[in-house]
Amino acid sequence: MSVEETQKAAERPPTGAAPAGDGDEEGHGFRLDSKTIVPALGILALIIVPVLVWAATSGGSGDKLRIDQGVSVFGGPEIVVNVPKKLNLASETGGATSVKLICEDGRGNAVLSTNQPWPFINEVGYPYPHIHQSVTPKQLQAIATCHLVGTKTKLSGNLRRT
User: Fold this and answer.
1) What is the structure's pLDDT at 60?
2) Where are the domains of the chain?
3) Is the pLDDT assigned to residue 48 strictly greater than 70?
4) Is 40 helix (H, G, I), strand (E, B) or coil?
5) What is the β-pairing status of strands 77-82 and 66-71?
6) pLDDT higher than threshold 60 for residue 150
7) What is the share, in percent, of the chain residues with pLDDT greater than 70?
């Protein structure tokens, strides 16, 4: 083979190869293989998992009591039991003018049981309708959760310690 023939052979595409730019364009572009699927699933998991955890633990409808540890105007310990505004209606108790507040320790034993006027008060400086309930230091130490008896909606919540 002469030098000229060798150069021409090197310039020709191999037998059976398609010329550049004349092939099937669908084979090029976005491909689903392990190099694209695994990172995409990882990113998706980083977004979806926290949202699912939040949704599962957020309490959903917001129909919970907020129970805060506090100090009364007289200097003694108290709990402030807050109820969602949308539920602080006479219709929530079927017209009854009181509910029972029951607070329990971590084992479910009653630590406090008292009747409270319904609906709760709306007081300046507090974001929710609420009541102030005096407690002894021993009760405050023991209380884990509280709930109301006498409302249509099951209202309960954990004590938020400061």
Assistant:
1) 41
2) 25-57, 66-160
3) no
4) helix
5) antiparallel
6) yes
7) 68
Whole-structure pTM value: 0.62
Strand order in the sheet with 66-71: 110-117, 98-104, 145-149, 156-160, 66-71, 77-82, 130-134
Tokens of 49: 């998992």
Ordered DSSP codes for 78-147: EEEEE--GGG-SGGGGTT-SEEEEEEE-TTS-EEEEEEEESSPB--TT-SS-EEEEE--HHHHHH--EEE
**Assigned CATH topology for domain 66-160:** Immunoglobulin-like (2.60.40)
Q: How far is CA 136 from the centre of its chain?
A: 33
More confidently predicted of 25 and 87: 87
* Residue 154 structure tokens: 């099951």
- Bridge partners (DSSP) of residue 132 are 80
**Rounded to the nearest 5 degrees, what angle is found at the Cα of 158, between the Cα atoms of 152 and 160?**
130
